[in-house]
Amino acid sequence: MARNKRLGKKMRLASALNSNRNPPVWVRLRTKNRVTRSPSWRNWRRVKLKA
To answer: Of 8, 15, 23, 45, which residue has the fewest beta carbons closer than 10 angstroms?
Structure first.
């Protein structure tokens, strides 16, 4: 991937990176481990972004 990206593409990639994290620990504690992963979890190799 090119080092110099357009700002719009860079912002979309950053948004996808931030939304691909696990939920915080307090969510797991509050739901008694019923919620262990984010519903929007995405694997970098299997699902490609349309960015």
So the answer is: 45
